[in-house]
Amino acid sequence: MSQYILEMRGITKTFPGVKALEDVNLKVKEGEIHALCGENGAGKSTLMKVLSGVYAHGSYTGDILFKDKVCEFRNIKESEELGIVIIHQELALIPYLSIAENIFLGNERSRGGIINWHETTLRTRELLQRVGLYESPNTLIKDIGVGKQQLAEIAKALAKRVKLLILDEPTAALNEDDSANLLTLMLELKKQGISCIIISHKLNEIERVADSITILRDGKTIETLDKKRDGVDEDRIIKGMVGRDLTQRFPERESNIGETILDVQNWNVYHPQRESQKVIDNVSFHIRKGEVVGIAGLMGAGRTELAMSLFGGAYGKKISGTVFKNGKEIKFKSVSDAINKGLAYVTEDRKHYGLVLIDDIKRNISLTSLPKLSKRGVVNQNREVIIAEDFRKKMNIKSSGIHQKTGNLSGGNQQKVVLSKWILSEPDILILDEPTRGIDVGAKYEIYTIINQLAAEGKGVLVISSELPEILGMCDRIYVMNEGRITGEVDREEATQEKLMKLMTKSRG
Amino acid sequence: MDMLRNVFKNNIRQYGMIVALVFITILFQILTDGILLKPLNVTNLILQNSYILVLAIGMVLVIITGHIDLSVGSVAAFIGALAGIMMVNMNMPFYLAIIVSLVLGALVGAWQGFWVAYVKIPSFIVTLAGMLLFRGLTMIVLDGKSIAPFPKAFQKISSGFLPDFTVGSLNFLTIIIGIVLSLVYIGIEVYNRRLQKRYGFEPTSGKGFIVKMVVIVAVINLFMYVLASYKGIPNILIILFALVVIYSFVMNRSIMGRHIYALGGNEKAASLSGVKTKKVTFWVFVNMGVMAALSGLIFAARLNAATPKAGTNFELDAIAASFIGGASASGGIGTVIGAIIGGLVMGVMNNGMSLIGLGIDWQQGIKGLVLLAAVGFDIYNKNKSS
ABC transporter domain: which residues (chain A) (predicted)? Predict the structure, then answer.
C-alpha cells in the first residue's frame, strides 16, 4: 500500500464555455492534514465536488484513487460509503431537529424501519465527547451557536466512520475561540488516524495545522508544498496563489479626479436576523468625482453588505453612520430615495437581485426610470422603445431585439442590460458589485470600457471585486476589507497582489 | 417575419385562450341546437357571470403580484349583507349605501393587505383566515336570516338595461353605441399608428392592420346586434366594460401597473430597483377588497336579497378564471383581458352544460379538468421554451 490515501490524477472538468479544472493533481497522505489554497474561482470547490461525487463520474476526465483503488462515484452516497465526507461552508443541519437526530439523519440507528432511540442517544453521547461538544443529544440545533453546530457536523461525519474529512472554509463563520477549538480538534482527529483536507482563506490557520499544501490557480495545480521540507509561511503561499501573468487587458484611461462626491463616516451595520452580530464595523471611505475606487476582499468580508446597507438600507438592521454627498449631509431613507438622490447599485447576483428574468429587455431597462418616461403616471411606451433600442445599440447587447426576455440572454448581455438600467437612472455615484462575475473575457473588456466612460463623465464609481487583477487594472484607489472592517487603503501605484492579499487575510487584533 | 413569430410565440397563451373560447362556444352552439347564442341567452350569460368577472379582474392583479385571495367570496357576502342592512333596515339612499359599501370593501382589503405586505404573513393564510372571519361576520350581522327586498333603483344595477328607442324589434340605441364604439376603436388605432410613425418605427403591415380592424369592428357590431334583438345593453355590461378598459390601461400603461408586474416577476430585483414593494402589495389588496365589495353588491342586486350563503365558492371561480386566462401561479404573468376570457370560458361551459341538461356533478368534474388542462398546457409551454 502506498503512503497516499487519496490520489486525484489529471482531473479536467469543463462547464459550457469554461474550463473549471485542467489536469489537476492532488495527493493526500494517510493521516495528514492537507490544505487546499487558491483565490475565489480557482477551482477548489469544483475539485471537492468531483471528489465527493456531486459531479458524477463521466462528467469529468481523470482518475480518482482512494486507498489505491480506482473510484467512480456517481453520487455523494457512494463516496460516503467509503468514508469520504465533505462538510460545506453552509452547514447542512436541520435547525428544528435535535443534535442526535441530525447526526444520524440518513444513517438512522434502526431495526426494520423503527428507530432505536436508545442506541441513537448513546452513540451520540460518545461522538459528542470525541469532538468535545458538551450538550445534551436532545438539544435542538437552532439553540446552539455556529461553532457548536460545526462540531455537530464533524460528529455527524464521525458517525459515518469517516476516513477522509473535507472541510470547506470551516472557520469562516466562527469567532477566534471557536476557530482555535476547531483547529485543535482537527489535530486531535489526525492523531486518531483520520486524514483531512481543509480549504481556507485564513492562511495563519493553514500555517498552523497543515502538513502539506496544494495551491490551485485558474483551475490548475500550481504546486504542492511540504511543510517540513519547504518551510512554508504565509508569504510563500500568497506568492503561489497570485503569481500569474496578467492575461486580461484593461482599456486605457486617463484619470481626471475632482472633488469628493461621496463621503461615508463611521458606518455600522448589524445582521438582519442575528441582531447582536456586527456585520460592518465602523467603516469610513470616500469617492471623488471621476474616480474608480475598488473594494477588495474575500467572500464574506462584508463588501456586499456595506454596499447594500448604504443603498437605502436594503440590507441590515440598526444602521448608523453619516453620509455626505458633495459636502452636504444626506440620508438615503429607502431604495427609491437613494435612487432619486443619485445613487445606483449594480448587484453581484443579477439573476436574483438585478433582473426580472420573465420580462423583456425594454421593461428591465426602464424599470427604475419609469417616472422620467411618464406623464401623470402614464408611461410613454414609444419613448421607452426608442430609449431601449438606443441602449441596445450603444451597449452592444446581443439579442434578437428589445422584446427578448432577459432570462434567455447570456451572462455578459444580462449584465449590460442591468448596467443600461442604472445608467438610464442618471446616477452621480455607481456601486458595481462583482461587475464581471461569470462573464467571458470579451464582454469583460466591454464592461471595463463602460466603467471608464462613466468615470470620464465625472461620476464616482465604486467597484467591488474578488478578482485582484481586475481591481489592480481598473481602480485609482483601493480599499481592502476583511471581517466587516477596512483593513487598509492602497493607492494604485503602490498596489500589488501580495500586498492586497495580505490585507485581505489580516485578522482582528 | 421572425418578429411576428416571436410575438405570436409570446402570446400563444392568450391567443390560445381566445381560440379555446371560440371553440367551446361553437361546440355548445351546435350541442344546444343554437340556443346558446340566442339574444336572450347571451344577455343571460352576461348577467350570470358579471359578479365573477368583476372578482376575476381584482384577482388577476393579486395573482400577478404572486399572491392569492381566498376571502373574496366571504367578503362579497359580508358587504352584501351590510348593504342590505343599510338600504332595507336603515332606509339609507341606495347611492350612499353603495359608496359606503365600497369604502368598507377597501377597509377589508386594507386589513388583509396590512398582514400580507407589512407583517409578511403568507397571503394564503391571511385570506384563509379572512374567508372564515368574514363568513362568520356575515352570519352574525344577518342573524342567520336573509334581508329583502332591495329598493327598485338598486336592483337595476343587475337587472336593468339602457333605456331603448326601439325601431321595429331592434333596440336602436344599442346599434348606435355599437357604431360609435367601432369609430372610437378605429380612431385610436389610427392615432397610435401615426404616433408610431412619428417616432420612426416600422409600423406593422397595412394589410394586417386593416384585416385586424375589420374583424374587430365586425365582432363589436354583431355582438351589439344580438343584444339589440333582446332588451339592449344591460347596465352591468357598461360597468364591466369600463372596468376592463380602465384596468387594462393601468396594467399596461401606468407606472403602477409596471411596478405590479415587476414585483410579481422578481420581488427582490424590483425592490432594489426602487419599487416600493410593500406599498404596491398593500394597494393591490385594497383594490381586491373594493372589487369584492362591488361583486357582492351586484350579486345582492341580482338576487334581490342579502343572504348568509351568498358568495360561496366565488373565490374559486375567480381564481380559476385568472389561471385559465394565462396568469402564472408564481407571479409576474397575467392580463386583465385574459382573466375575462378565462371567466367567459367557465361561464359558457356552465351555461352550455346546463342547457344540454348535464347534471351539476358532471359540470363540476369537467370544469376541474379544464382548469388542470389549461394550467398544464401553460407549464408545458414554459418548459419547452426554456
Answer: 6-243, 264-508
Query: In this model, does residue A99 exceed pLDDT 90?
Result: yes
Task: Please check whether residue A38 is in contact with residue A240, taking contact to mean a CB–CB distance below 8 angstroms.
Answer: no
Chain A partners within 8 Å of B268 (Cβ): 352-353
Q: Is the peptide bond before B163 cis (omega within 30 degrees of 0)?
A: no
Structural domain boundaries, residue B98 = 2-160+234-385
Short-list A244, A274, A321, A329, CA closest to A486: A321
Residue B69, Cα to own-chain centre: how many angstroms? 15
What are the residues of chain B with a beta carbon less than 8 Å away from any beta carbon of chain A?
2-3, 6-7, 10, 195-196, 199-201, 253-256, 258-259, 261-262, 265-266, 268-276, 332-333, 386
Q: Is residue B111 part of a domain?
A: yes
| Cα B334 from Cα B14, distance rounded (Å) | 9
Q: What burial letters (b/e) apply to A73-107, b meaning 16+ CB within 10 Å? A: beebebbbebbbbbbbeebebeeeebbbbbbbeee
A402-423: per-residue pLDDT in tens?
Answer: 888 888 887 788 999 999 999 9
- C-alpha A201/C-alpha A44 separation (Å) is 11
Task: Report which DSSP code applies to B161.
Answer: B
The answer to whether A280 touches A266, Cβ cutoff 8 Å, is: no
Question: Does A401 sit within 8 Å of B201, measured CB to CB?
Answer: no
CA dist A186 to A4, A153, A170, A171, A238, Å?
19, 13, 11, 12, 23
How far apart, in whole angstroms, are the C-alpha atoms of residue A39 and residue B309? 67
For residue B121 the three cell numbers come to: 404573513
Contact A330, A324 (CB under 8 A): yes
Q: Angle, to 10 degrees, between the axis of helix B314-324 and the axis of helix B39-64?
A: 80
Do B210 and B189 meet the contact criterion of CB atoms below 8 Å apart?
no
Beta bridge partners of A296: A465, A480
In a domain, B208, yes or no: no
Residue B288 forms part of a structural domain: yes
Partner-chain residue, chosen from A359, A383, A385, that has the shortest CB–CB distance to B262: A359
CA distance linking residue B324 with residue B338, whole number of Å: 8
Count up the domains in chain B and report the number. Answer: 1
| Residues in chain A closer than 8 A to B197 (CB atoms) | none
Spans in chain B with pLDDT lower than 50: 1, 386
Which sign does the torsion angle of CA A225, A231, A232, A236 carry? Answer: negative
pTM (2 decimals)? 0.80
Gap between the Cα atoms of A39 and A472, Å rounded: 15
Mean pLDDT over each residue of chain A, to the nearest integer: 87
Contact A370 B258 (CB under 8 A): yes
**CB contact set of B71 (below 8 Å; sequence gap of 6+):** B112, B127, B128, B129, B130, B131, B133, B134, B292, B315
Location of C-alpha cell 404573468: B333
Cβ atoms of B337 and B241 closer than 8 Å: no
Q: Is residue B360 part of a domain?
A: yes
How far apart (Å, rounded) are the C-alpha atoms in residues A20 and A18? 6
Q: Position of cell 430597483? A: B273
Mean pLDDT of A388-415: 87
- Model confidence pLDDT, tens digit, residues B106-152: 999 999 999 999 999 999 999 999 999 999 999 999 998 999 899 99
Select the residue from A339, A359, A369 to test the B interface by mutation, using most B Cβ atoms within 10 A. A359
Enumerate domains of chain A plus CATH numbers. 4-242 (3.40.50.300), 260-342+427-504 (3.40.50.300)
User: Cα(A195)–Cα(A166) distance, rounded to whole angstroms?
Assistant: 9
For the domain that residue B152 is a member of, what is the CATH number? 1.10.3470
